[in-house]
Write a structure and sequence with these properties.
The complex is a heterodimer.
Chain A: H1 2-13, E1 34-36, E2 42-44, E3 49-55, H2 57-60, E4 70-73, E5 79-83, E6 88-92, E7 98-102, E8 114-119, E9 125-129, E10 134-138, E11 144-148, E12 164-169, E13 175-179, E14 186-189, E15 195-199, H3 208-219, H4 222-227, E16 236-241, E17 247-251, E18 262-265, E19 290-291, E20 295-296, E21 300-305, E22 311-315, E23 320-324, E24 330-337, E25 343-344, E26 347-353, E27 356-361, E28 366-372, H5 374-387, H6 395-404, H7 409-421, H8 425-434, H9 438-455, H10 457-481, H11 484-493, H12 498-504, H13 506-516, H14 521-541, H15 556-580, H16 587-597, H17 599-612, H18 620-646, H19 650-695
Parallel strand pairs in A: 24-25
Antiparallel strand pairs in A: 1-2, 3-28, 4-5, 5-6, 6-7, 8-9, 9-10, 10-11, 12-13, 13-14, 14-15, 16-17, 17-18, 19-20, 21-22, 22-23, 23-24, 26-27, 27-28
Helix pairs in contact in A: 5-6, 6-7, 7-8, 8-9, 12-13, 13-18, 14-15, 14-16, 14-17, 15-16, 15-19, 16-18, 17-18, 18-19
Chain B: H1 18-49, H2 55-60, E1 64-68, E2 72-77, E3 82-87, E4 93-95, H3 109-114, E5 119-124, E6 130-134, H4 135-140, E7 145-150, E8 153-160, E9 165-174, E10 177-183, E11 188-189, E12 196-202, E13 209-210, E14 216-219, E15 225-228, E16 237-240, E17 264-269, E18 272-280, E19 285-290, E20 298-306, E21 310-316, E22 322-328, E23 339-347, H5 354-367, E24 382-387, E25 389-396, E26 399-406, H6 412-422, E27 428-433, H7 456-469, E28 473-477, E29 482-483, H8 492-495, E30 506-507, E31 526-528, H9 531-548, E32 553-555, H10 558-561, H11 575-591, E33 597-599, H12 603-606, E34 611-615, E35 627-628, H13 631-636, E36 642-644, H14 653-663, E37 668-671, H15 692-712, E38 718-723, E39 728-733, E40 738-742, E41 748-750, E42 753-755, E43 760-763
Parallel strand pairs in B: 24-27, 24-37, 27-28, 28-32, 33-34, 34-36
Antiparallel strand pairs in B: 1-2, 2-3, 3-4, 5-6, 5-12, 7-8, 8-9, 9-10, 9-11, 10-23, 12-20, 13-20, 14-15, 14-17, 15-35, 16-19, 17-18, 18-23, 19-20, 21-22, 25-26, 29-31, 30-31, 38-39, 39-40, 40-43, 41-42
Helix pairs in contact in B: 6-15, 9-11
Classes of the chains: A alpha+beta, B alpha+beta.
């Protein structure tokens, strides 16, 4: 009965991904092939690995592999499967053909619940057995040699259990043993079996919860303190060692997901794996999460470093392999959940051998082999050259990869960098733009601009000279030909030019505006509308060096709200406040005055936009400075405007501005309350409608 | 099964003297012992032989002959509700359930009782809980089986007394085939009972093979797949025919699988095999297959029919926890004219491989006028599939707006073709999608007016003139089933299919990382239109298309395979009905003089196509499947020219080439000629590797390499196809050409041919 129900339920969930009818664009692998794009969302991507085959125990001729827990490889690339359920080790070659079966012989006790195996450089086999509480050391045929048991030392509490879970041996023969539940790091033993100490414990992450607990702990009694939570570091769940002898650990932070789940430790147990510059840590696993009854996110259980120092991380929740280059750039995501070759039910370990990846599924009892596709090979070759600094030689493999995935930003960046080195700055800028790499674009732009200016040196200087001359000629021309009095008079008194006059004569202009009533609603509105239009232009046309907006997803309502909406809100709040504080301005006047005070900002937006297109990132502070100055002037104007319109003293003006801001916040809060109420009512109505429709 | 052990009556020798009595006693013991031995041995002998029982043996064992044709005899065991079909030429007997099922050690309880059942059903009660039932326990054993003879066969009426359901199953033999049929309007459900039937599995263990046998099951997954008997990997196979009903929208999509486009399945045993076709109501059917050891000790494959489908609906309670409720399709069985029919075609011992199954299936389609009877004369051609225009959000004067990007202007096509011709490509077929105003995945194609950005009417005319002048067959693609951009003339609430919960069927955009629905601003959902609405608009389009572009090839792909039900109360339409309507629409276009190209069409549209594109080169690669086979391609080869999925959609060029040679497929590419970087953040974001400039050289080289081989087998059937454990495959054509393709990393030799790693060899 259960079978059929699960059948139907499973069948309901199984459907194809192809959504469009034309030439199905399903990825050519039996899992959803994606990566994270420039906007940090998941987008379709070409697979860098394809699943070749999944072998079961029956395929190898050894009977079912029962609950296997670990894999390891030897120097030749053979793969060893720890068949925990059958208490044996199965050895196969890198083409997944059976070689031999190893049983442990001659040991004082037998295997109980082995969870980890590894081989050292001499070919000795180490089996970490949680149930037997020891690490068995045998030779390659399974003949028992000695055991590593819990060390007796002052460093370890007597009551702590020694439950060896995973084991690793480095080139010098130092044995690292991860004990289940131990947060102090790995137990290290030398080749004689003597205890050396602990290695590589995580640090306790400082969170708000921790800080608040720390505070309460200070006030608590001793008895209360004993019953409070102790903050201990999260244990790490698995580790691997690279060619150079560095140990990589992977930790599972549970619900407190943080960056740096994978660490590369130096001999002092310090993490040296950074994404780009220190101290920036990479977030490993899926960035996107979803909620059903709880948060569903990646749960990392294994890490593997291959011969090129690429890092493979295994997520057991969705059966995925995330591959990162040595700089922590996410290169590719393979695998998924399911019943097909290349998908998993419970993937527990991963190893690599000769460029291929092998993943162990504990429930299915299979090992699945992944081979790089043409795309994967090209990306790997290019990345290795790129990381070693051979940017131009990487160009060919980058183009090979580009052929297959024209939107992969790592590929585009690589090509951009190559052109950058080859001094073809315009091409470099083009590719950097596609890859949304603002920093590198800025550097390339700098070079490009320098070259451009050099080329047009004469033209540039003639233009500058001309502008300087204008500054001297125009006033003298005015003196000669201008009808001084009337022009000045027109300028000072006309409504059309009043906003400009205000800009240049703030202290006088506002008071005059009040007495002469030279404000005009029409001009006020046009200033505000202009500010909105310019904010749109700023969003779109700010130079790429500074523009981090998504141009195809501009939300016009947000922009309208932040210009026109805020303006109206301010006017309403200010007028409302003024009635309470004996302000003498009418609503119309408040409207006009506020609009006029925006004039400076509006006028200066255009030069800011123009400047942003010709400056590099390092020169960005000019723009910032300009913007600060303009903001300062705008605030000054606003201050003077409020003082003038309501006829306050300076102290009262400042107070009224504060009150206005408070008023705005109040209005927004009440507005949100209404909106929320309305939404609840709306969802209530839609639910009823849906239910009625279904019963009809 | 009872072995009737005959023993002669004992003669009267009761008056024997005591001493002789003693001797007789010992003798008797000996006789009894020998008799026991004989009994035990005959048990074994009889059990093994039941597959070759003669008419007499069958009758001796409780079977009665109910019907006969020139090729087959039909027997029925009325007491147990079992039937058997005996092939007269080989004497091999196929049973509806394994004869010694009672001795099966691998199963117990419900699974075991499915073995002797003719029907395995799922019922639901008024709370929406599901209950399975087997006809053997719930009908036969409770006295609910009624057997009567019909013309040419038997009618089994199974009354599930406790569930209040009665299902009559017709078993008929016609010529050399066996037909199983259930008529919807004969299914009786007790009005007073709350139980309703959801689906039924017909003859779940027909011809099931015990675990000692070697052979395989064939399932129509993707290109086709083989499940070796007794395989230990994976879980039982189940797949819906034509893919899952699109009107049942899952909340999460995790899998990437191929579809079953052809409703066929088969079995190859040691003494013969069969291929079965779901003849009617295939759109409501699904196929299940299990190797021995997963549920029972038998290898079996069978089909099931969904009578009432259901969807899961999520309500959020006040506390915020989601609650799933099942809502079921309304189905008024007595008024329905639907019926479920599956036909089994029996194959001889030497001719029961999947290649033979393909041939038998093709013959079946030809006999039913659903497949061309003449061989094709077309030689190998390079299929170029161009995408014309597509929408992308671009800031226009600062405001983002949908802009039609011309990815392949009409004038670019001749340039590409000329470049390829210079490099040695001789023969082409061109398909062009997204030529209609609005582009691909854009506005609904109401009238056949070419997109202005691509060159407009004049550009299209010039392109057609160029192609006609060079003898290149052209197909114009359009999508009539899916509504991507609703507008004032195409209102989704009025014209889309209805789901079971009455809302318009919207296919959501699923997030690739977390599998759930993407509700953000850059999601691209679309709607499926009702068949009658599609007909109206399609007819309007076709009328103009006939005048403007008479005799031009036409490729309305989605009419060949996207099939979803309309569960609307008024004017609803089943998937089967939709398929019939689509078939008639395709016929309209073909009869108007347009050759049709279809993308991996389902069986109902197969016979109408002049060219078939985008065939899957493999199956979904479920772990239970042992290997993929190009069944679909074997059915087509020689009769309808076809191409596998485009080269730039496979991860390896070498595997692609081998796939073409193995299945006899034309090479194909999917291309755009401009703006390859603009596909990002648009509906075309999947097409990241389709820039023509990157692929022209490779395409020419590929074509030149395989064209001689493929031309030598054009118009020839594939008569056999073998997969070797070493990774090599041999395809044998009717005219004697043999192609060895080597997918492994080692050199292989087979049947006199040797191939280098990832390479091939051709011979005779």
């Amino acid at each position: 009965m259960k079978n059929i129900v699960t059948f139907i339920a499973a069948a309901l969930l199984t459907t194809t991904v192809s959504v469009f009818a034309v030439s199905p664009e399903r990825p050519p692998v039996p899992w959803l092939s994606y990566n994270y794009g420039v906007w940090d969302r998941s987008i379709p991507a070409q697979p860098a690995y394809e699943s070749v085959a999944a072998v079961t125990g029956a395929d190898l001729g050894v009977g079912t592999i029962l609950l296997p827990n670990d894999l390891c490889t030897d120097a030749e690339g053979n793969i060893y499967i720890l068949d925990s359920g059958n208490k044996r080790i199965i050895m196969m070659d890198s083409e997944m053909k059976f070689v031999r079966e190893i049983h442990m012989t001659g040991a004082p006790s037998s295997l109980v619940d082995p969870h980890g195996i590894c081989l050292d450089s001499r070919g000795m086999l180490y089996i970490a057995d949680r149930g037997a509480r020891q690490v068995f050391v045998c030779n390659a045929d399974g003949a028992y040699h000695h055991s590593i048991i819990k060390p007796i030392t002052d460093l370890i509490d007597e009551r702590t259990d020694f439950l060896p879970d995973k084991v690793l041996v480095d080139r010098l023969g130092v044995v690292y043993v991860l004990s289940f539940g131990s947060y102090a790091g790995a137990y290290t033993f030398d080749s004689n079996g003597d205890f050396l100490g602990f290695y590589g414990s995580n640090k306790v992450k400082v969170t708000a919860q921790l800080k608040s607990d720390k505070f309460w702990r200070m006030l608590a009694t001793k008895k209360q303190r004993e019953r409070m939570y102790r903050y201990v570091p999260v244990e790490y769940v698995n580790f691997d060692i690279d060619r150079d002898g560095f140990i990589y650990t992977v930790s599972n932070y549970g619900d407190n997901e943080q960056r740096g789940q994978v660490r590369k430790l130096n001999p002092l147990s310090q993490n040296i794996l950074f994404a780009g510059q220190k101290p920036y840590l990479m977030f490993f696993g899926d960035w996107e999460t979803t909620y059903t009854n709880k948060v569903e996110k990646s749960s990392l259980v294994a890490v593997n470093v291959d011969d090129d120092n690429f890092i493979n991380v295994l997520d057991v929740n969705r059966g995925r392999i995330f591959q990162y280059d040595p700089q922590c750039n996410l290169l590719t995501i393979s695998g998924g959940p399911g019943e097909q070759v290349g998908t998993f039910k419970n993937a527990v370990d991963i190893v690599s051998s000769h460029g291929d990846m092998y993943v162990l599924d504990n429930v299915k009892g299979t090992v699945t082999q992944f081979k790089p596709t043409r795309f994967g090979t090209a990306v790997r070759k290019a990345t290795t050259l790129y990381e070693d600094g051979y940017y131009e030689q990487a160009l060919d493999p980058w183009f090979e990869a580009l052929k297959i995935d024209r939107t992969n930003y790592l590929v585009l960046r690589g090509i951009g960098r190559a052109y950058d080195r080859m001094k073809q700055y315009d091409k470099a800028m083009d590719y950097y733009k596609q890859a949304e790499y603002h920093g590198s674009y800025s550097d390339a732009f700098y070079e490009y601009r320098t070259a451009f200016l050099r080329k047009h040196f004469c033209l540039m200087w003639s233009v500058i000279l001309f502008i300087i001359l204008l500054f001297f000629i125009v006033p003298s021309l005015k003196k000669k030909y201008g009808k001084k009095k009337s022009l000045q008079h027109v300028y000072e008194t006309s409504r059309k030019y009043y906003p400009f006059y205000l800009m240049l004569h703030p202290f006088r202009g506002w008071e005059e505006l009040k007495y002469d009533n030279r404000g005009s609603i029409m001009y006020a509105n046009s200033i505000i509308v202009l500010s909105f239009i310019l904010s749109v232009l700023e969003y779109q046309y700010t130079g790429f060096v500074f523009n981090v907006n998504r141009l195809d997803q501009m939300n016009i309502f947000v922009l309208a709200g932040s210009t026109i909406g805020v303006f109206i809100l301010w006017c309403v709040a200010n007028w409302g406040m003024s009635t309470l504080m004996d302000g003498k301005g009418t609503f119309r006047e408040v409207w006009i005055y506020t609009a006029y005070s925006r004039m400076t900002a509006v006028v200066w937006t255009i030069p800011v936009i123009l400047l942003s297109n010709v400056l590099t990132r390092d020169e960005g502070f000019f723009i910032n400075l300009l913007v600060y100055v303009v903001d300062g002037i705008t605030f000054l104007n606003l201050l003077l405007a409020i003082k003038a319109v309501h006829q306050y003293t300076m102290k009262k003006t400042i107070g009224s501005i504060l009150l206005t801001v408070l008023g705005m916040i109040l209005i927004v809060i009440i507005g949100l309350l209404f909106v929320s109420l309305f939404m609840q009512m709306w969802s209530f109505i839609t639910t009823i409608v849906r239910e009625v429709m279904m019963r009809m | 099964m009872v072995v009737h052990y005959h023993y002669r009556a004992r003669s009267n020798d009761a008056h024997v003297v005591p001493e002789e009595k003693m001797k007789n006693k010992n003798d008797k013991k000996l006789i009894y012992a020998l008799g026991l031995l004989f009994l035990l041995s005959t048990q074994g002998v009889c059990a093994e032989n039941y597959e070759t029982w003669s008419k007499q043996a069958l009758e001796k064992n409780g079977f009665e002959c109910a019907a006969a044709t020139k090729e087959l005899e039909l027997y029925v065991d009325e007491k147990n509700g079992v039937f058997a079909v005996r092939k007269l030429d080989s004497g091999y007997v196929w049973y509806s359930s394994p004869v010694d099922w009672e001795h099966d050690t691998k199963s117990s309880g419900f699974n075991k009782n499915a073995l002797p059942s003719l029907l395995s059903i799922t019922m639901k009660d008024d709370q929406g809980s599901l209950y399975p039932a087997n006809s053997y326990v719930n009908a036969v054993k409770r006295g609910g089986l009624h057997v009567e003879k019909t013309d040419g066969g038997i009618k089994f009426t199974n009354t599930f007394k406790r569930e209040g359901v009665e299902i009559p199953l017709y078993v008929t033999i016609e010529g050399d085939t066996l037909l199983l049929q259930v008529n919807y309007n004969e299914i009786w459900e007790d009005e007073e009972d709350v139980m309703r039937i959801l689906d039924f599995n017909v003859a779940p263990y027909f011809g099931a093979a015990p675990s000692g046998e070697t052979g395989y099951l064939f399932v129509p997954d993707g290109s086709g797949a083989v499940i070796n008997f007794n395989t230990k990997s994976g879980t039982p196979y189940q797949q819906y025919i034509y893919g899952r009903d699109k009107s049942i929208i899952p909340s999460k999509v995790k899998d990437v699988t191929e579809n079953a486009a052809l409703p066929v399945f088969g079995m190859k045993r040691e003494n013969g095999g069969f291929v079965a076709v779901v003849e009617h109501s295939a759109a409501s059917a699904f196929i299940t297959a299990e190797p021995a050891g997963q549920k029972t000790g038998y290898n079996a494959v069978s089909s099931s029919c969904i009578v009432r489908d259901f969807d899961t609906f999520t309500f959020r309670e006040r506390t915020g926890t989601p609650r799933d409720i099942r809502i079921f399709q309304q189905q008024n069985l007595p008024d329905s004219s639907e019926y479920f029919a599956v036909r089994y075609i029996f194959l001889d011992k030497e001719h029961d491989s999947y290649a033979d199954m393909a041939k038998a299936y093709r013959k079946y389609l030809q006999e039913n006028d659903a497949f061309p009877k003449e061989k094709t004369l077309q030689k190998t051609s390079l299929l170029l599939n161009f995408i014309g225009a597509g929408i992308k959000k671009k800031p226009v004067a600062g405001i983002p707006a949908d802009v039609d990007y011309p990815y392949t202007p009409f004038t670019d096509v001749p340039q590409v073709i000329e470049k390829l011709q210079h490099s040695g490509v001789g023969s082409f077929t061109v398909k062009y999608d997204g030529w209609v105003n609005g582009g691909i995945f854009g506005k609904y194609p109401s009238i056949p007016s070419p997109e202005g950005n691509l060159g407009g009417k004049a550009g299209m005319k010039n392109l057609l003139k160029y192609l006609n002048g060079n003898g290149i067959q052209f197909y114009a693609g359009a999508d009539f089933v899916n509504l991507y951009s609703p507008d004032i003339r195409h209102i989704k609430e009025l014209t889309a299919n209805r789901a079971i919960n009455r809302s318009p069927v919207k296919i959501p955009d699923y997030r690739l990382s977390t599998f759930d629905e993407n509700t953000s601003g850059d999601a691209y959902p679309y709607w499926i239109l009702r068949a009658p609405a599609i007909k109206t608009w399609y007819d309007r389009f076709l009328e103009k298309f006939n005048t403007l572009y008479a005799d031009t090839g036409f490729a309305p792909d989605s009419l060949g395979n996207v099939v979803g039900s309309d569960f609307g109360k008024k004017n609803g339409l089943t998937r089967g009905g939709t398929a019939e309507l689509f078939e008639s629409l395709l016929k309209e276009a073909r009869d108007a003089g347009h050759p049709l190209m279809l993308s991996r069409p389902d069986d109902y549209a197969l016979g109408l196509a002049s060219y078939v594109s985008d065939l899957p080169a493999q199956s979904s690669r479920f772990e239970v499947e042992s290997y993929s086979v190009p069944f679909y391609q074997i059915v087509l080869h020689g009769y309808i020219p076809f191409a596998n999925l485009p080269a730039n959609r496979t991860p390896d060029p070498e595997t692609y080439l081998l796939g073409l040679l193995e299945s006899g497929s034309d090479p194909s590419y999917l291309w755009i000629t401009r703006h390859p970087e603009s596909v990002r953040d648009s509906k075309l974001q999947w097409y990241t590797n389709v820039y023509a400039g990157d692929w022209i050289d490779e395409a020419a080289a590929l074509y030149k390499k395989i064209q001689p081989v493929l031309d030598s087998v054009a118009g020839s059937e594939i008569v056999s196809h073998t997969v070797f454990p070493s990774g090599a495959r041999i395809t044998l054509y009717e005219n004697g050409v043999k192609v060895l393709t080597n997918y492994s990393g080692h050199e292989v030799t087979a049947e006199g041919l040797t191939a280098a790693p990832y390479s091939y060899a051709v011979g005779r």
